[in-house]
């Protein structure tokens, strides 16, 4: 039976070096690979390009890497919750590539599927389309977007098995699944790691063939980015 389990986050992230491009799953602070991000901080790798829907908050998620100036370039869709991100962007310390959210997801999915590029109407006629090929289909203009190229994809799942099969929960399913297999190496940290064959095949969201390393995460904080409640 295939076993892709590694013993720790240290072993899981072996090979990450300065200057690499990393994909990091999550939506807001939901479903982010907390253990992997914390270890990247310890590794102190520099000059990273990070592809992620958002950049965390000042003291959590990718915000921890921004604090230590480990990220040179952020490719994101939404970055409004991080003051340090804003400061670095406006000062020119951080290169930022803002991408429509659906386009970002599809650029990951295209990489996962081995598709080099695709056409989308999102961004046509705006700065997003500058320098890119455009084409008309049925009277409507589209922008050609190339699939992402990344060295590592770091994702977080609710459950996984030793063969690398993954199940996601709730909003964590927004970006984590499309990043699996979209990089040279996919690392999955999971809340619950089961023996191979113990997951119901009908409930698996990502097959193990798209995952190279999997490990049992620890002490997930699962911080809430914005808590909104109605008055009593």
What does this structure look like?
- The protein is built from 6 helices and 11 strands.
- The chain has 232 residues and is an alpha/beta fold.
- The protein has one domain (9-108, 148-216): Glutaconate Coenzyme A-transferase (3-Layer(aba) Sandwich).
- Strands 1, 2, 3, 4, 8, 9, 10 and 11 form an 8-stranded mixed beta sheet that branches. Strands 5-7-6 form a 3-stranded antiparallel beta sheet.
- The radius of gyration is 18 Å and the shape is globular.
- Belongs to the 3-oxoacid CoA-transferase subunit A family.
- This is Succinyl-CoA--3-ketoacid-CoA transferase.
Write the topology of this structure.
Elements lengths: L8 H4 L8 E4 L9 H10 L4 E4 L11 H5 L3 E6 L6 H9 L3 E4 L2 H13 L3 E4 L13 E4 L2 E7 L5 E10 L4 E2 L8 H4 L5 E10 L18 E4 L16
Parallel strand pairs: 1-2, 1-8, 2-3, 3-4, 8-10, 10-11
Antiparallel strand pairs: 5-7, 6-7, 8-9
GO molecular function: CoA-transferase activity
InterPro entries: 3-oxoacid_CoA-transf_A (IPR012792), CoA_trans_fam_I (IPR004165), CoA_transf_BS (IPR004163), NagB/RpiA_transferase-like (IPR037171)
Pfam family, one: CoA_trans
Fill in the keyword field for this structure.
single chain, 232 residues, alpha/beta, Glutaconate Coenzyme A-transferase, eight-stranded mixed β-sheet, three-stranded antiparallel β-sheet, 6 helices, 11 strands, 19% helix, globular
């Amino acid at each position: 039976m295939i076993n892709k389990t590694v013993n720790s986050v240290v072993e899981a992230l072996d090979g990450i070096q300065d200057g690499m491009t990393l994909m990091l799953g999550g939506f807001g602070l939901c479903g982010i690979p907390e253990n992997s991000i914390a270890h990247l901080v310890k590794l102190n790798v520099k000059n990273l390009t990070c592809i992620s829907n958002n950049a965390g908050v000042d003291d959590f998620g990718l915000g921890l890497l921004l604090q230590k100036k480990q990220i040179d370039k952020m490719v994101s869709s939404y970055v409004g919750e991080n003051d340090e991100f804003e400061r670095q962007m406006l000062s020119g310390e951080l290169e930022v590539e803002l991408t429509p959210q659906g386009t970002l997801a599809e650029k990951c999915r295209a990489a996962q599927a081995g598709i080099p590029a695709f056409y989308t109407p999102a961004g046509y006629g705006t700065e997003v389309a500058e320098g890119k090929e455009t084409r008309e289909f049925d009277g409507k203009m589209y922008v050609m977007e190339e699939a992402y190229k990344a060295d590592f994809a770091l994702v977080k799942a609710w459950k996984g098995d030793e063969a690398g099969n993954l199940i996601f929960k709730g909003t964590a399913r927004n970006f984590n699944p499309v990043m699996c297999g979209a990089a040279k190496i996919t690392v999955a940290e999971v809340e619950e790691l089961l023996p191979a064959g113990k997951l119901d095949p009908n409930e698996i969201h990502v097959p193990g063939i798209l995952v190279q390393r999997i490990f049992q995460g620890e002490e997930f904080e699962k911080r809430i980015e914005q808590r909104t409640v109605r008055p009593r």
